[in-house]
Amino acid sequence: AQRVTQPEKLLSVFKGAPVELKCNYSYSGSPELFWYVQYSRQRLQLLLRHISRESIKGFTADLNKGETSFHLKKPFAQEEDSAMYYCALVGGGADGLTFGKGTHLIIQP
Amino acid sequence: DTGVSQDPRHKITKRGQNVTFRCDPISEHNRLYWYRQTLGQGPEFLTYFQNEAQLEKSRLLSDRFSAERPKGSFSTLEIQRTEQGDSAMYLCASSIWDKPYNEQFFGPGTRLTVL
Q1: Residue of B6, B106, B110 for testing the chain A interface, max A β-carbons within 10 Å
Q2: Which of A17, B57, B61, B79 has the most CB atoms in a 10 Å sphere around its CB?
């Protein structure tokens, strides 16, 4: 069975500090990995996907197949980064997303 | 087109009643997904459609849950004989299907409260 684990329910850092949100996954094949974000009073939206190897809003995520991880990183946190972050995977090309429980990121001024 | 829409946004019902939620996807999207999200959890996948065909329904939580997408456009999710444990946010998402990593666009959700 596929599973996504986000070990931190809450992460609080100061503005300008580096941020790392952890994500580990369990899947027997080669999954597609995503980070979704939900800002206050907004709907869930895609932040980035590993296949694109892109940097969005200063965030990057590297897929480490050996450690089955897809941690989200940003070198300098900004107050507008405060939100709920969900790591998710899809496998087999057919099913819906499997989400982690989410990490609430709070950026303190 | 302003994105995925869901109706109603909130629903309060009494235990044992039936409820139906509607989802209107982005117009050119052929895939439509339903998720449930309970407090403190991430969204949980329930079912999905490609056009009007329901391709996965084994994840529906019980036989009280059913979904339809009769003309390949909007979809409905029905819960029969609601229970207090059905209280949750029900999310709909849509996407264009040609690759598994295509972005799913989410609606605002329908919050169900079962008294």
Answers
A1: B106
A2: B79
